[in-house]
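To whoever is on call:

I kicked off a structure prediction for a single chain this morning and the downstream step that reads the tokens threw a length-mismatch warning. I double-checked the sequence; it's 127 residues and nothing unusual in it as far as I can see. Pasting both halves so you can look.
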Amino acid sequence: MPILFMKQLSVIIAVYNSAPYITQCVERIIPQMDSDMELLLLDDGSNDSSGALCTKLACDNPLINVEHFEHCGVSATRQRGLESAQGKYLLYIDADDEVSSTMIGEMLKCAESNDADMVICDYKELT
């Protein structure tokens, strides 16, 4: 029996003391998303205003879900995101990343047109 997924894509962002970056990161991702996608903001026990910012972003957009928990590190946080994700595809983004305005669509198109299990992209360091 095939597994049915509720969403096409789950974007997972582990957040730890990322207040200076998280809003801009989310604002670059949201325009690329549609109702068949979800954005999971996972607050890993931040002790700055990151948790409150995540909650506000989730209140402002129904595509965003936020979870708060005690600090456990980035690997355990990403694992929690994997357990919560409803997407056929997963995309991990760091809270301080600046993604291109077409990245999500290009990666999904590549995955689907090649029947790929995984798609990897390059990165550009900003100086």
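Update from on-call: the warning came from a stale cache, not from the record. Cleared it. Sanity check on the structure: The chain has a mean pLDDT of 93.
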